[in-house]
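Researcher: I'd like a candidate sequence for this fold, 275 residues long. If you have to choose between options at a position, lean toward the conservative one.
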């Protein structure tokens, strides 16, 4: 009996170590992490190191059963009026890593698109995650009206620095994981379900991304009018470019990562069992 207990303890310690080390792979440079799995309430918790406060639109998105084998709850955005806002600048930690050639940015999210082209805006795309407004455009992880997955990075005037997408690359009416890394001097890429090859990629054109923009990060809405009709969960943002193995780890984390202020990683036993 004692040997069995010792063996069981060793197994628990082994899995704890493996999960902690794996999670640490994607802890580096983590800026924002919203599991969006609360299931109720008027707030979404940021599990990243900055613990950003979040804010719903006046007409809030709806908590729903995700209908996903690993995601229990998520937020449904109606494509007309609902969004989630994270005002990083007013909380003292705006993200400006796009202009740093040694850093960059990576944005990832689980998405289930319900409908496209639901608004009357003259743009042909809707945002999953976006930051910018007139004369301070920065970046956007996007869904196009041609069912394309995209990532755009702009200069402050809204001119493209590296904008990439591919028609038909975003699955419709089913869950998929979309990641968009950008690095100055390299450009933008888009990955679906952590497949090794990007579905789209574009080199940057020599323009410099906007550094002076202080607009909030917004999920499912662009401030000048676009809205995305989709269910969204597990939104991540890093101030660096992730490799494909790290994207796959993020895709399969499902609420298991929690970083305390100061960058210390914590992983609970409940999370370990879930992994």
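Model: Candidate sequence:
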């Amino acid at each position: 009996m004692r040997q069995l207990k010792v063996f069981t303890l060793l197994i628990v310690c082994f899995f704890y170590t493996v999960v902690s080390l794996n999670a640490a792979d994607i802890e580096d440079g983590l800026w924002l992490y919203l599991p969006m799995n609360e299931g109720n309430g008027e707030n979404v918790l940021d599990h990243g190191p900055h613990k950003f406060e979040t804010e719903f639109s006046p007409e809030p998105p709806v908590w729903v059963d995700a209908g996903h084998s690993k995601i229990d709850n998520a937020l449904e955005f109606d494509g007309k009026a609902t969004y989630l806002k994270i005002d990083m600048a007013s909380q003292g930690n705006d993200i400006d890593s796009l202009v740093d050639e040694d850093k960059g940015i990576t944005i990832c999210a689980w998405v289930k698109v319900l409908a496209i082209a639901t608004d009357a805006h003259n743009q042909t795309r809707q945002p999953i995650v976006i930051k910018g407004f007139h004369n301070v455009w920065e970046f956007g992880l996007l869904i196009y009206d041609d069912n394309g997955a995209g990532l755009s990075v702009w200069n402050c005037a809204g001119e493209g620095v590296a904008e990439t997408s591919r028609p038909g690359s975003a699955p419709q009416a089913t869950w998929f994981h979309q990641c968009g890394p950008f690095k100055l001097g390299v450009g933008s890429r888009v990955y679906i379900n952590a497949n090794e090859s990007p579905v789209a990629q574009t080199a940057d054109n020599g323009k410099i991304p906007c550094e002076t923009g202080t607009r909030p990060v917004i999920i499912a809405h662009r401030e000048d009018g676009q809205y995305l009709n989709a269910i969204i969960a597990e939104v991540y943002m890093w101030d660096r470019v992730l490799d494909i193995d790290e994207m796959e780890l993020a895709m399969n984390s499902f609420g298991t990562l929690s970083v305390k202020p100061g960058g210390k990683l914590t992983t609970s036993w409940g999370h370990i069992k879930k992994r």
